[in-house]
């Protein structure tokens, strides 16, 4: 699994001109799922996401976690994170999980994060044509790949 994590002061996702999810002060996460991903990947990413110290403390130092600030999460599925651009000019998405694998894992990730934080998690619409808007705070953007956990 690949997660692109952005510290935001606000973020939202719109589907068919309706706001589906919206947060303030937290993390907007784009999540890409591969065929080989499993619950171990979810658990590892979950721990990293909620405990990563990327929020400023009273001295302006990134020393607080999402849990410390009681921040929010907006989770968006994004298969294009697994694009292969090695050949030609048209990206290949062969590594991205098909919906029958990706949807259950995405839903497990949503539940896992929702149980781990005190605020309600927001999400996009899996496979939907989404319009994502955000104000990146910092800017702080971090990429986590569960294949790098060892």
TrEMBL record:
GO terms for biological process: D-amino acid catabolic process. Its EC number is 3.1.1.96, 3.1.1.-. A motif (Gly-cisPro motif, important for rejection of L-amino acids) lies at residues 138-139. Keywords: Cytoplasm, Hydrolase, RNA-binding, tRNA-binding. Its main location: cytoplasm. It is found in: Cytoplasm. It catalyses: glycyl-tRNA(Ala) + H2O = tRNA(Ala) + glycine + H(+); a D-aminoacyl-tRNA + H2O = a tRNA + a D-alpha-amino acid + H(+). Gene3D superfamilies: D-tyrosyl-tRNA(Tyr) deacylase. GO terms for molecular function: D-tyrosyl-tRNA(Tyr) deacylase activity; Gly-tRNA(Ala) deacylase activity; Ser(Gly)-tRNA(Ala) hydrolase activity; tRNA binding. InterPro entries: Daa-tRNA_deacyls_DTD (IPR003732), DTD-like_sf (IPR023509). The keyword Transport does not apply. The keyword Transmembrane helix does not apply. Pfam families: Tyr_Deacylase. GO terms for cellular component: cytoplasm. Belongs to the DTD family. An aminoacyl-tRNA editing enzyme that deacylates mischarged D-aminoacyl-tRNAs. Also deacylates mischarged glycyl-tRNA(Ala), protecting cells against glycine mischarging by AlaRS. Acts via tRNA-based rather than protein-based catalysis; rejects L-amino acids rather than detecting D-amino acids in the active site. By recycling D-aminoacyl-tRNA to D-amino acids and free tRNA molecules, this enzyme counteracts the toxicity associated with the formation of D-aminoacyl-tRNA entities in vivo and helps enforce protein L-homochirality. A Gly-cisPro motif from one monomer fits into the active site of the other monomer to allow specific chiral rejection of L-amino acids. Homodimer. This is D-aminoacyl-tRNA deacylase. It comes from Marivirga tractuosa (strain ATCC 23168 / DSM 4126 / NBRC 15989 / NCIMB 1408 / VKM B-1430 / H-43).
């Amino acid at each position: 699994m690949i997660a692109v994590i952005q510290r935001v002061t606000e973020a939202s996702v719109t589907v068919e001109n309706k706001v589906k999810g919206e947060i303030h002060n937290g993390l907007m996460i784009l999540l890409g799922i591969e065929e080989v991903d499993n619950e171990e990947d979810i658990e590892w990413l979950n721990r990293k996401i909620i405990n990563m110290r990327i929020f400023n403390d009273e001295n302006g130092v990134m020393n607080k976690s999402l849990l410390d600030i009681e921040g929010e999460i907006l989770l968006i599925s994004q298969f294009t994170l697994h694009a292969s651009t090695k050949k030609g000019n048209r990206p290949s998405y062969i590594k991205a999980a098909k919906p029958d694998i990706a949807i259950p894992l995405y839903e497990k990730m949503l539940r896992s994060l929702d149980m781990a934080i005190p605020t309600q998690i927001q999400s996009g619409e899996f496979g939907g044509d989404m319009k994502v808007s955000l104000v990146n705070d910092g800017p702080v953007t971090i990429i986590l790949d569960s294949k790098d956990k060892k």
